[in-house]
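FAQ

Q: What does a record look like?
A: Structure on top, sequence underneath. For example:
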Protein backbone atom coordinates (compact mmCIF):
# COMPACT_ATOMS: atom_id res chain seq x y z
CA UNK A 1 0.00 0.00 0.00
CA UNK A 2 1.55 3.30 -1.09
CA UNK A 3 1.62 6.15 1.41
CA UNK A 4 0.76 9.84 1.08
CA UNK A 5 1.60 12.49 3.68
CA UNK A 6 -1.53 14.59 4.32
CA UNK A 7 -0.72 17.84 6.08
CA UNK A 8 -3.73 19.08 8.03
CA UNK A 9 -5.02 15.50 7.92
CA UNK A 10 -6.78 16.00 11.26
CA UNK A 11 -8.74 18.95 9.90
CA UNK A 12 -12.09 19.20 8.16
CA UNK A 13 -11.11 18.82 4.50
CA UNK A 14 -7.91 16.90 5.18
CA UNK A 15 -9.74 14.20 7.14
CA UNK A 16 -12.26 13.75 4.33
CA UNK A 17 -9.34 13.42 1.91
CA UNK A 18 -7.77 10.78 4.15
CA UNK A 19 -10.97 8.75 4.01
CA UNK A 20 -11.16 9.08 0.21
CA UNK A 21 -7.51 8.02 -0.10
CA UNK A 22 -8.08 4.96 2.06
CA UNK A 23 -11.10 3.95 -0.01
CA UNK A 24 -8.96 4.30 -3.16
CA UNK A 25 -6.29 1.99 -1.73
CA UNK A 26 -3.74 4.50 -0.42
CA UNK A 27 -2.34 4.78 3.11
CA UNK A 28 -2.91 8.37 4.30
CA UNK A 29 -0.44 9.58 6.91
CA UNK A 30 -1.93 12.58 8.72
CA UNK A 31 0.70 15.23 9.48
CA UNK A 32 -0.79 17.80 11.83
CA UNK A 33 0.26 19.93 14.81
CA UNK A 34 -3.31 19.71 16.15
CA UNK A 35 -3.55 23.47 16.65
CA UNK A 36 -6.83 23.34 14.73
CA UNK A 37 -7.20 19.70 13.73
CA UNK A 38 -8.90 17.09 15.90
CA UNK A 39 -7.15 13.90 16.93
CA UNK A 40 -10.40 11.93 16.71
CA UNK A 41 -10.65 12.74 12.99
CA UNK A 42 -7.56 10.63 12.27
CA UNK A 43 -9.22 7.28 11.50
CA UNK A 44 -7.69 5.92 8.30
CA UNK A 45 -3.96 5.90 8.97
CA UNK A 46 -1.23 7.00 11.37
CA UNK A 47 -0.79 10.49 12.81
CA UNK A 48 2.47 12.43 12.94
CA UNK A 49 2.29 15.41 15.28
CA UNK A 50 4.57 17.96 13.62
CA UNK A 51 4.58 21.43 12.11
CA UNK A 52 4.72 22.15 8.39
CA UNK A 53 7.26 24.90 8.99
CA UNK A 54 9.80 22.24 10.02
CA UNK A 55 11.36 20.79 6.85
CA UNK A 56 13.40 18.23 8.82
CA UNK A 57 10.24 16.70 10.31
CA UNK A 58 8.64 16.63 6.87
CA UNK A 59 11.64 14.90 5.32
CA UNK A 60 11.71 12.37 8.18
CA UNK A 61 7.98 11.62 7.74
CA UNK A 62 8.34 11.08 3.99
CA UNK A 63 11.28 8.73 4.48
CA UNK A 64 9.72 6.82 7.40
CA UNK A 65 6.59 5.97 5.43
CA UNK A 66 8.24 5.93 2.00
CA UNK A 67 5.56 8.39 0.88
CA UNK A 68 5.29 9.02 -2.85
CA UNK A 69 3.61 12.42 -2.52
CA UNK A 70 2.26 15.08 -0.16
CA UNK A 71 -1.24 16.55 0.00
CA UNK A 72 -0.98 19.94 1.64
CA UNK A 73 -4.10 21.17 3.44
CA UNK A 74 -2.59 22.75 6.55
CA UNK A 75 -3.35 26.49 6.48
CA UNK A 76 -5.25 29.26 8.20
CA UNK A 77 -8.29 30.34 6.19
CA UNK A 78 -10.31 33.10 7.88
CA UNK A 79 -10.57 36.17 5.66
CA UNK A 80 -11.37 38.46 8.59
CA UNK A 81 -8.52 37.14 10.74
CA UNK A 82 -6.09 37.45 7.85
CA UNK A 83 -6.94 41.14 7.54
CA UNK A 84 -6.44 41.67 11.26
CA UNK A 85 -3.23 39.64 11.61
CA UNK A 86 -1.41 39.28 8.28
CA UNK A 87 1.87 38.27 9.93
CA UNK A 88 0.21 35.13 11.30
CA UNK A 89 -1.05 34.19 7.83
CA UNK A 90 2.22 34.73 6.00
CA UNK A 91 4.06 32.74 8.66
CA UNK A 92 1.63 29.83 8.73
CA UNK A 93 0.56 29.61 5.09
CA UNK A 94 3.62 30.71 3.10
CA UNK A 95 6.35 29.62 5.47
CA UNK A 96 4.42 26.41 6.07
CA UNK A 97 4.41 25.53 2.36
CA UNK A 98 8.09 26.42 2.11
CA UNK A 99 8.86 23.95 4.90
CA UNK A 100 6.86 21.25 3.16
CA UNK A 101 8.57 21.87 -0.19
CA UNK A 102 12.05 21.78 1.35
CA UNK A 103 11.17 18.53 3.12
CA UNK A 104 9.94 17.04 -0.16
CA UNK A 105 13.09 18.13 -1.97
CA UNK A 106 15.42 16.81 0.75
CA UNK A 107 13.63 13.46 0.69
CA UNK A 108 14.10 13.18 -3.07
CA UNK A 109 10.40 13.36 -3.89
CA UNK A 110 8.67 15.63 -6.42
CA UNK A 111 4.87 15.45 -6.13
CA UNK A 112 2.42 17.64 -4.21
CA UNK A 113 -1.32 18.32 -4.35
CA UNK A 114 -1.96 21.79 -2.97
CA UNK A 115 -5.10 23.17 -1.33
CA UNK A 116 -5.63 26.62 -2.84
CA UNK A 117 -8.66 28.91 -2.92
CA UNK A 118 -10.97 30.97 -5.10
CA UNK A 119 -9.85 33.95 -3.01
CA UNK A 120 -6.90 34.31 -5.39
CA UNK A 121 -9.35 35.77 -7.95
CA UNK A 122 -10.39 38.66 -5.73
CA UNK A 123 -13.44 40.50 -7.08
CA UNK A 124 -13.95 39.38 -10.72
CA UNK A 125 -16.13 41.39 -13.07
CA UNK A 126 -18.93 38.82 -13.13
CA UNK A 127 -19.84 35.50 -14.66
CA UNK A 128 -18.33 32.10 -13.99
CA UNK A 129 -14.66 32.22 -13.01
CA UNK A 130 -12.29 30.01 -14.98
CA UNK A 131 -8.62 29.29 -14.31
CA UNK A 132 -7.53 31.98 -16.78
CA UNK A 133 -9.42 34.71 -14.91
CA UNK A 134 -6.82 37.23 -13.67
CA UNK A 135 -5.70 36.71 -10.08
CA UNK A 136 -6.14 39.84 -7.98
CA UNK A 137 -6.74 38.95 -4.31
CA UNK A 138 -8.44 41.55 -2.13
CA UNK A 139 -7.55 40.06 1.26
CA UNK A 140 -4.46 38.75 2.99
CA UNK A 141 -5.64 35.15 2.97
CA UNK A 142 -5.92 35.28 -0.83
CA UNK A 143 -2.51 36.95 -1.10
CA UNK A 144 -0.86 34.16 0.89
CA UNK A 145 -2.44 31.43 -1.25
CA UNK A 146 -1.43 33.14 -4.47
CA UNK A 147 2.10 33.50 -3.15
CA UNK A 148 2.04 29.77 -2.42
CA UNK A 149 1.00 29.04 -6.00
CA UNK A 150 3.94 31.10 -7.21
CA UNK A 151 6.24 29.12 -4.91
CA UNK A 152 4.99 25.92 -6.53
CA UNK A 153 5.62 27.29 -10.02
CA UNK A 154 9.15 28.40 -9.08
CA UNK A 155 9.98 25.03 -7.52
CA UNK A 156 8.61 23.30 -10.62
CA UNK A 157 10.81 25.39 -12.89
CA UNK A 158 14.00 25.09 -10.85
CA UNK A 159 13.73 21.76 -9.01
CA UNK A 160 11.44 19.60 -11.12
CA UNK A 161 8.49 19.69 -8.74
CA UNK A 162 5.23 18.24 -10.10
CA UNK A 163 2.11 19.77 -8.60
CA UNK A 164 -1.62 20.18 -8.86
CA UNK A 165 -3.14 23.28 -7.26
CA UNK A 166 -6.85 23.02 -6.49
CA UNK A 167 -8.70 26.31 -6.08
CA UNK A 168 -11.68 25.59 -3.84
CA UNK A 169 -14.78 27.63 -3.74
CA UNK A 170 -16.89 27.19 -0.53
CA UNK A 171 -16.24 23.78 1.00
CA UNK A 172 -19.21 22.53 3.03
CA UNK A 173 -21.33 19.52 3.98
CA UNK A 174 -20.16 16.41 5.81
CA UNK A 175 -19.28 12.79 5.27
CA UNK A 176 -22.39 10.79 4.29
CA UNK A 177 -21.79 8.35 7.15
CA UNK A 178 -21.42 11.24 9.64
CA UNK A 179 -17.95 10.05 10.69
CA UNK A 180 -16.39 13.49 10.24
CA UNK A 181 -17.72 16.99 9.69
CA UNK A 182 -17.05 20.70 10.01
CA UNK A 183 -16.09 21.37 13.61
CA UNK A 184 -13.66 24.07 14.70
CA UNK A 185 -13.05 25.65 18.06
CA UNK A 186 -13.79 29.04 16.50
CA UNK A 187 -16.25 28.53 13.65
CA UNK A 188 -16.45 31.18 10.92
CA UNK A 189 -18.34 29.49 8.08
CA UNK A 190 -21.98 30.17 7.26
CA UNK A 191 -23.57 26.71 7.32
CA UNK A 192 -22.04 25.38 10.56
CA UNK A 193 -22.59 28.72 12.31
CA UNK A 194 -26.26 28.75 11.31
CA UNK A 195 -26.71 25.20 12.56
CA UNK A 196 -24.87 25.86 15.80
CA UNK A 197 -27.13 28.88 16.29
CA UNK A 198 -30.23 26.71 15.83
CA UNK A 199 -28.87 24.27 18.39
CA UNK A 200 -28.21 26.99 20.96
CA UNK A 201 -24.40 26.88 20.77
CA UNK A 202 -23.90 30.44 19.49
CA UNK A 203 -24.97 33.54 21.38
CA UNK A 204 -25.33 35.52 18.19
CA UNK A 205 -25.62 34.83 14.49
CA UNK A 206 -25.78 37.42 11.76
CA UNK A 207 -25.51 37.82 8.02
CA UNK A 208 -22.47 39.84 7.05
CA UNK A 209 -23.95 42.40 4.69
CA UNK A 210 -27.26 42.73 2.86
CA UNK A 211 -26.25 45.49 0.44
CA UNK A 212 -24.19 43.54 -2.10
CA UNK A 213 -24.99 44.00 -5.78
CA UNK A 214 -26.73 40.61 -5.98
CA UNK A 215 -30.28 39.36 -6.54
CA UNK A 216 -31.25 39.61 -2.86
CA UNK A 217 -28.48 41.81 -1.44
CA UNK A 218 -26.59 38.95 0.24
CA UNK A 219 -23.28 37.54 -1.00
CA UNK A 220 -23.37 34.73 -3.57
CA UNK A 221 -20.99 31.79 -3.29
CA UNK A 222 -20.40 28.47 -5.00
CA UNK A 223 -20.90 25.73 -2.37
CA UNK A 224 -19.09 22.45 -3.06
CA UNK A 225 -19.47 19.30 -0.95
CA UNK A 226 -16.33 18.35 0.95
CA UNK A 227 -16.54 14.73 -0.23
CA UNK A 228 -16.50 15.90 -3.85
CA UNK A 229 -13.38 17.90 -3.00
CA UNK A 230 -11.79 14.84 -1.41
CA UNK A 231 -12.40 12.73 -4.51
CA UNK A 232 -10.84 15.46 -6.65
CA UNK A 233 -7.67 15.27 -4.56
CA UNK A 234 -7.38 11.56 -5.20
CA UNK A 235 -7.84 12.21 -8.92
CA UNK A 236 -5.16 14.91 -8.80
CA UNK A 237 -2.74 12.53 -7.09
CA UNK A 238 -3.40 9.87 -9.71
CA UNK A 239 -2.78 12.47 -12.42
CA UNK A 240 0.69 13.12 -11.00
CA UNK A 241 1.35 9.39 -10.57
CA UNK A 242 0.60 8.94 -14.27
CA UNK A 243 3.35 11.43 -15.11
CA UNK A 244 1.01 14.06 -16.49
CA UNK A 245 1.86 17.76 -16.33
CA UNK A 246 1.28 20.07 -13.40
CA UNK A 247 -1.92 22.09 -13.40
CA UNK A 248 -4.33 24.44 -11.67
CA UNK A 249 -8.02 23.55 -11.36
CA UNK A 250 -11.14 25.17 -9.94
CA UNK A 251 -13.28 23.02 -7.66
CA UNK A 252 -16.87 24.14 -7.16
CA UNK A 253 -20.37 23.09 -8.08
CA UNK A 254 -20.63 25.52 -10.98
CA UNK A 255 -23.70 27.13 -9.37
CA UNK A 256 -24.09 30.10 -7.03
CA UNK A 257 -26.38 30.44 -4.03
CA UNK A 258 -26.92 33.56 -1.95
CA UNK A 259 -26.58 33.58 1.82
CA UNK A 260 -30.33 34.11 2.09
CA UNK A 261 -30.97 31.07 -0.11
CA UNK A 262 -28.68 28.91 2.01
CA UNK A 263 -30.50 29.95 5.18
CA UNK A 264 -33.82 29.14 3.53
CA UNK A 265 -32.51 25.65 2.66
CA UNK A 266 -31.37 25.16 6.27
CA UNK A 267 -34.84 26.09 7.52
CA UNK A 268 -36.42 23.62 5.07
CA UNK A 269 -34.14 20.78 6.20
CA UNK A 270 -34.31 21.42 9.93
CA UNK A 271 -37.97 22.43 10.05
CA UNK A 272 -36.98 25.47 12.06
CA UNK A 273 -37.10 29.03 10.82
CA UNK A 274 -34.95 31.71 12.34
CA UNK A 275 -34.32 35.39 11.87
CA UNK A 276 -30.74 36.28 11.05
CA UNK A 277 -30.04 39.97 11.66
CA UNK A 278 -27.85 41.74 9.14
CA UNK A 279 -24.50 43.14 10.16
CA UNK A 280 -21.74 44.99 8.36
CA UNK A 281 -19.84 43.44 5.49
CA UNK A 282 -16.57 41.78 6.47
CA UNK A 283 -13.46 43.51 5.11
CA UNK A 284 -12.29 41.85 1.90
CA UNK A 285 -15.54 40.00 1.06
CA UNK A 286 -16.42 40.02 -2.67
CA UNK A 287 -20.04 40.07 -3.82
CA UNK A 288 -20.07 36.93 -5.95
CA UNK A 289 -17.78 33.97 -6.59
CA UNK A 290 -18.98 31.13 -8.85
CA UNK A 291 -16.71 28.58 -10.51
CA UNK A 292 -16.34 27.35 -14.03
CA UNK A 293 -15.34 23.70 -13.51
CA UNK A 294 -14.97 22.56 -17.12
CA UNK A 295 -11.21 22.09 -16.90
CA UNK A 296 -11.54 19.91 -13.80
CA UNK A 297 -14.30 17.91 -15.48
CA UNK A 298 -12.26 17.21 -18.59
CA UNK A 299 -8.81 16.65 -17.05
CA UNK A 300 -9.58 15.24 -13.58
CA UNK A 301 -12.93 13.62 -14.26
CA UNK A 302 -14.40 15.88 -11.57
CA UNK A 303 -18.14 15.41 -11.10
CA UNK A 304 -19.57 17.21 -8.04
CA UNK A 305 -22.56 14.90 -7.68
CA UNK A 306 -22.92 15.54 -3.93
CA UNK A 307 -22.86 19.31 -4.28
CA UNK A 308 -26.57 20.08 -4.50
CA UNK A 309 -27.63 22.54 -1.82
CA UNK A 310 -30.20 20.14 -0.25
CA UNK A 311 -27.59 17.37 0.06
CA UNK A 312 -24.98 19.72 1.47
CA UNK A 313 -27.38 20.97 4.13
CA UNK A 314 -28.78 17.51 4.94
CA UNK A 315 -25.35 15.90 5.48
CA UNK A 316 -24.13 18.88 7.51
CA UNK A 317 -27.26 18.85 9.70
CA UNK A 318 -26.93 15.11 10.36
CA UNK A 319 -23.34 15.65 11.46
CA UNK A 320 -24.21 18.60 13.69
CA UNK A 321 -27.04 16.75 15.36
CA UNK A 322 -24.55 14.02 16.29
CA UNK A 323 -21.60 16.23 17.16
CA UNK A 324 -23.47 19.14 18.78
CA UNK A 325 -26.68 17.92 20.45
CA UNK A 326 -29.07 20.82 20.93
CA UNK A 327 -28.64 22.68 24.19
CA UNK A 328 -31.78 22.54 26.37
CA UNK A 329 -32.90 25.44 28.51
CA UNK A 330 -34.06 25.10 32.13
CA UNK A 331 -37.64 25.22 30.90
CA UNK A 332 -36.97 22.11 28.83
CA UNK A 333 -37.17 23.83 25.45
CA UNK A 334 -34.51 23.91 22.77
CA UNK A 335 -32.26 26.91 23.20
Amino acid sequence: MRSVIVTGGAGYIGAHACKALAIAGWRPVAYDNLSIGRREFVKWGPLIEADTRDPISMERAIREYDAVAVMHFAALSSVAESQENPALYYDNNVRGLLGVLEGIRSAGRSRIVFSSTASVYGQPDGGAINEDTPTAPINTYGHTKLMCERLLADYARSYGLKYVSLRYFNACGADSEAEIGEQREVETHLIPRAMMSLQGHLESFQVFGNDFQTRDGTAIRDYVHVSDLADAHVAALERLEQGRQSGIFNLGSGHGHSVAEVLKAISATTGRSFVAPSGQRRPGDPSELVASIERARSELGFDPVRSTLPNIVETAWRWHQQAHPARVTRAGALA
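Q: Is there anything notable about this one?
A: Confidence is low (pLDDT under 50) at residues 328-335.
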